[in-house]
User: Which sequence fits this backbone?
């Protein structure tokens, strides 16, 4: 159940997203080759500024630093509404993941430096932790070696979500041990304009613009360390859990709208002299999708509330939510294309955009299979 303020936020978000970032806004980010437009940043900067003005970038930021501290359940409501129109923005990367990093591991000075800027939208944060297609914190190889008064970073990160527009990166580096060890990982706050840090855009089928970060002797001061040196893996786990849950909320919005659009089509499309939704076989498909959608919603809402409640079951609930909504969105987005027939295969129809976003989101912050295995392991299977 939502309280009055959360319901108002949800209603406002739904209206704004529908009017300001409809599906056509995402379509405008595509190039003729089917990927992101080369001259686009993968999001609408003007719409981002409006989000900041509405306070969405500060939902998780404490009031003392210019935010509203409205909680993860509230952030999830906004992300779900953005997901309904597959709206592209760095809200998840910055307002949820980067803010969480600073709140969980930042010193008072680090929070005072970055949280107000994230809250007003002038800074965009992101997590730079992945180094390849195989998800896993212990595989981190990027090195941070001590130097006089600081650290020197060398290595790569890819993909970095919203990396081309980020101004602040939370970088996971190895200060000890070897790839495969959970110990020896340290997080750093790195400005993306630091000398030696170069960014290369990675094209993506959902028109968003993640990046490959190359670190070539990037020097950071000692006060750039976020949390404890060598003991950052637990903080990194907490960030990935929150990122996975936030993305699951967005994916829930994707799946809900894909289902609603498909249901409307079944109720209006006439074939063989009858509305196709009158065919029992298609009614069974719709009923199955509806059931899966309700299960996914329960998993996502439970995970969001677990963050706010600091529930010790959060890791398992995060994996349950990401895996459940991943399977649901995979199925509904595929059904959306199939049930629309030939028009569902065209770029001009929305169905393909939902399917493309579904396939990308399923791989971010841990794939569906990875989270399914993790949930089983955490529950003793």
Assistant:
């Amino acid at each position: 159940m939502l309280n009055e303020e959360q319901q108002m936020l949800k209603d406002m978000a739904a209206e704004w997203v529908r009017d300001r970032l409809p599906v056509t806004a995402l379509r405008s980010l595509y190039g003729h080759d089917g990927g992101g437009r080369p001259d686009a940043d993968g999001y609408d900067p003007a719409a981002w500024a409006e989000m900041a003005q509405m306070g969405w970038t500060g939902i998780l930021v404490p009031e003392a630093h210019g935010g509203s501290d409205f909680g993860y359940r509230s952030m999830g409501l906004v992300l779900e509404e953005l997901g309904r129109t597959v709206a592209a923005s760095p809200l998840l990367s910055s307002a949820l993941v980067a803010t969480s990093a600073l709140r969980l591991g930042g010193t008072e000075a680090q929070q005072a430096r970055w949280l107000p800027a994230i809250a007003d939208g002038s800074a965009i944060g992101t997590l730079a932790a992945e180094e390849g297609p195989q998800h896993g914190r212990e595989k981190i190889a990027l090195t941070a070696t001590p130097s006089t008064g600081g650290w020197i970073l060398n290595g790569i990160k890819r993909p970095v979500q919203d990396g081309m527009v980020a101004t602040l990166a939370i970088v996971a580096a190895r200060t000890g041990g070897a790839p495969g060890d959970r110990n020896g990982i340290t997080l750093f706050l790195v400005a993306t304009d630091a000398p030696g840090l170069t960014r290369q855009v990675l094209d993506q089928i959902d028109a968003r613009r993640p990046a490959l970060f190359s670190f070539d002797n990037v020097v950071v001061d000692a006060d750039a360390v976020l949390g404890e040196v060598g003991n950052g893996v637990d903080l990194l786990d907490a960030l990935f859990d929150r990122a996975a849950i936030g993305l699951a909320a967005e994916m829930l919005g994707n799946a809900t709208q894909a289902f609603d659009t498909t249901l409307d089509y079944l109720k209006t499309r006439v074939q063989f002299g009858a509305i196709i939704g009158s065919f029992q076989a298609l009614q069974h498909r719709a009923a199955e999708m509806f059931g899966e959608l309700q299960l996914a919603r329960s998993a996502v809402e439970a995970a969001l509330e677990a963050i706010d409640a600091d529930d010790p079951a959060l890791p398992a609930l995060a994996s349950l939510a990401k895996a459940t909504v991943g399977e649901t969105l995979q199925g509904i987005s595929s059904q959306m294309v199939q049930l629309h027939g030939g028009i569902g295969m065209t770029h001009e129809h929305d169905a393909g955009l939902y399917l493309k976003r579904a396939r990308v989101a399923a791989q971010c912050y841990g794939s569906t299979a990875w989270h399914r295995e993790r949930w089983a392991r955490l529950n003793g299977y």
